[in-house]
Specification:
- The complex is a heterodimer of chains A (about 325) and B (about 350).
- With about 325 residues, chain A is an alpha/beta fold.
- Chain A is about 20% helix and about 25% strand.
- Chain A is built from six helices and 13 strands.
- In chain A, the strands form four sheets. A four-stranded mixed β-sheet of chain A has the order 1-2-4-3. In chain A, strands 7-8-10-9 form a four-stranded mixed β-sheet. A three-stranded parallel β-sheet of chain A has the order 11-12-13, with helices on both faces.
- The longest helix of chain A is centred in the middle third of the chain and has 18 residues.
- Chain A is globular, with a radius of gyration of 21 Å.
- Chain B starts with about 25 loop residues before the first strand and ends in a 9-residue tail after the last helix.
- In chain B, about 35% of the residues are buried.
- The chains are: A alpha/beta (about 325), B alpha+beta (about 350).
- Chains A and B meet through helix 4 and strand 13 of A and helix 2, helix 3, helix 4, helix 5 and helix 8 of B.
Chain lengths: ~325, ~350
């Protein structure tokens, strides 16, 4: 396990000030599993401990060796709850349960932490992780996993956006599926793409339609909403990420431990085929920079010979895995 | 030889077991004394200490005092399991059997499984659920990898890990395992629709909440029985495992074995669930806390078995340390007669 000894997460208070949540780890030696402190507010500390304990119920790995000490400074008012997500994330980061790329700023509150759900947020800060509808609705969503208790299945996959040098980023595509009350009808009518340009909308519809045709059991069952993290981009290399997110949301694909990062397009999604796209070298460099523990990286088969030296080894050393595929589907 | 020639008529208190389910819907059934092991089956007789012996088909089961007996059919069996709770339409079709006894080990793992975990019967659906939850936990912890678009090499690695896991944990031998489309039997869209109308808590699969108010005494008894019988098995497997040579490894393994022995001793001398001291009963809340610790300790025991299954390929010193620490923590919690200390 590669967990840090301390982790920090920022959160915005109702007063507009930025508070810092710091979590540290030390040997347990018979003490409580979580100890919290907030300047002069024992009630707030109790609430912090309760939140962190409840959120741990959704974790697969139990470790009783460490005590995690969580503090928040400056202390929020007793009636505020927007700091809860920051406490939960700091508690996960310090134990290596979640790895963040860079600084984390989070706001969100929940009445059902034991299910990993997040109900809402009060303040908005640019670049922050926000909880609640329209943003992060449950903790598994940090890795793009569907919530296995909600009535809407939604999954997220990431794809590298190559914009020439320093503006390269990982962008995400999010697919939510709702069951149709009356099955059947024209599949394209049931696919909505939010905030995207017309060519992207068309490409999304065609890719989903063809890949669901390949799937065999997907047509006429779902109402689909597709969202992109970044509305403006060009190219079709997002298609593989879109198709994988769709398959995971519909419960017909193995679920990776971390995120899916995929780049690839296809001229024949109805046959499940994956074709090469442009920009192998810069995209691989970006992926190698951004990949985290447990991520699954999917690239076209045609790239296998062009991969930079040591790319696969570097990814494996991170704890992620990479596969060059020529078809989607199980094995 | 006492009791060998005693007749045991099939009275209502001692009914003749219906063995027709064996080999189809049940792997094993409890047998009463004097019953004959059915054709094609194997009898397993065990005493309170978990020592087992086998009886061949057609043999009459002569039981001594404090002994009980099971019959199992070696199979083959096949089930569909769901490796991910959030992918209900995708399953694995598993064909397994209980193999011929391995002559190199003093006790077959399946015999130990029967002695420590079986109740009246081991049904196919019950063992399917146990296999499913074991596999889901291993996948969630990253001990087995089954990623989207699995390549053939990755699939073979997964298969090897799964075979070893099921043999080490349950004593089952996997014949075949292939991914299947469960779309014929499972409709994810209908499951989602049902969740709209139901309270969410009731339908969440794979959820690890504090257990619903089950019978604390019964759950505690099962958990302690498992710990008492299986901890020596785990310790023995760890002692015999071939780890890479080296002084550091030796020291770490020795420390782990000593701690496991301490835990086994603690389990063997565990106080009664409801008593704080002789003649002095505990408050109900503390009884519940003790039972919860016992259940958690049994969960840590499950993880210890899967760690033993992974010992061959690499040494997981940190993971072993974590699992033994969890066992120690929960066994100490099971002994405690006052609520856990505050925020020290």
């Amino acid at each position: 396990m590669n967990a840090p000894l301390s982790a920090q997460c920022r959160t915005t208070l109702a007063s507009g000030r930025i508070a810092t949540v710091i979590a540290t780890r030390r040997p347990r030696s018979g003490r409580a599993d979580i100890k919290c402190s907030a300047a002069g507010e024992p009630k707030l500390a109790d609430r912090m401990q309760q939140v962190a304990r409840l959120a741990r119920h959704t974790e697969a790995r139990i470790d009783s060796r460490d005590q995690v000490v969580i503090s928040i400074d400056p202390a929020p008012n007793l009636d505020e709850r927007d700091w809860e997500l920051a406490v939960v994330l700091a508690d996960r980061m310090v134990r290596g349960e979640w790895h963040a790329a860079g600084e984390v700023h989070a706001n969100g509150w929940s009445g059902q932490w034991q299910l990993g759900r997040i109900d809402g947020h009060d303040t908005r800060t640019a670049g922050a992780i926000l909880g609640g509808p329209g943003a992060l609705t449950h903790l598994g969503g940090l890795a793009g996993h569907p919530d296995s208790g909600a009535s809407v299945a939604s999954a997220r996959a990431w794809f590298p956006l190559h914009a020439g040098g320093i503006h390269d980023t990982l962008a995400w595509v999010d697919v939510s599926v709702y069951p149709l009350a009356v099955p059947g009808g024209d599949e394209e009518d049931h696919i909505a793409v939010l905030d995207a340009q017309l060519p992207v909308q068309l490409a999304v519809r065609q890719a989903l339609l063809a890949s669901r045709h390949f799937d065999g059991r997907a047509l006429g069952r779902w109402r689909t909403v597709v969202r992109f993290g970044q509305p403006r981009f060009q190219g079709s290399s997002f298609e593989l990420a879109l198709v994988m997110a769709d398959r995971i949301a519909r419960g017909r694909e193995f679920v990776p431990r971390g995120r899916i990062i995929a780049s690839g397009a296809s001229a024949a999604w109805h046959a499940g085929q994956v074709d090469a796209v442009e920009g192998c070298a810069p995209k691989c460099a970006l992926i190698a920079r951004e990949a985290l523990v447990g991520d699954r990286i999917l690239l076209p088969k045609a790239w296998e010979t062009d991969l930079p030296d040591g790319f696969k080894e570097a990814i494996r050393a991170l704890g992620a895995s990479v596969a060059c595929i020529e078809r989607i589907g199980i094995i | 030889m006492r009791g060998l020639f005693r007749r045991t008529p099939a009275t209502p208190a001692n009914p003749a077991t219906d063995a027709s389910a064996l080999g189809t819907t049940a792997l094993a059934l409890r047998m009463h004394a004097g019953a004959v092991v059915p054709a094609g089956c194997v009898g397993v007789v065990f005493d309170k200490g978990g020592r087992t012996r086998r009886a061949a088909q057609g043999e009459r089961l002569a039981l001594l005092e404090h002994e009980s007996a099971f019959c199992f059919h070696p199979g083959p069996y096949s089930i569909d399991i769901m490796p991910f709770a959030s992918a209900p339409e995708l399953g694995l079709h598993l064909a397994f059997a209980i193999d011929a006894p391995d002559p190199r080990v003093p006790q077959q793992r399946f015999d130990l499984f029967l002695a420590s975990e079986a109740e009246a019967a081991v049904t196919l659906s019950a063992i399917g659920a146990a296999i499913e939850s074991t596999l889901q936990r291993e996948l969630a912890q990253g001990n087995l990898e089954l990623a989207p678009c699995t390549s053939l090499d990755e699939w073979n690695a997964f298969r090897a890990g799964l075979n070893q896991l099921l043999y080490t944990r349950f004593g089952l031998t996997v014949d075949d395992c292939v991914p299947v489309d469960l779309g014929d039997t499972v409709d994810y869209a209908q499951m989602l629709l049902a969740r709209v109308h139901e309270p969410v808590q009731a339908t969440r699969p794979g959820q690890k909440m504090a257990p619903a108010p089950v019978d604390a005494a019964l759950a505690d008894r099962h958990a302690l029985r498992r710990l008492f019988l299986e901890l020596p098995g785990v310790t023995c497997a760890l002692r015999l495992a071939c780890l890479p040579p080296g002084q550091l490894q030796f020291g770490q393994r020795q420390a782990l074995l000593q701690r496991l022995d301490q835990v086994a001793l603690s389990v063997a001398t565990m106080p009664a669930l409801t008593l704080a001291a002789p003649g002095q009963s505990l408050p109900t809340a503390q009884v519940q806390a003790r039972a919860r610790h016992a259940i958690s300790a049994a969960a840590a025991l499950d993880e210890a078995w899967s760690m033993v299954a992974r010992l061959a390929d690499a040494a997981h010193v940190d993971d072993a340390d974590r699992i033994v620490a969890n066992l120690e923590h929960h066994c100490a919690g099971r002994r405690r007669s006052a609520p856990e200390g505050g925020d020290a």
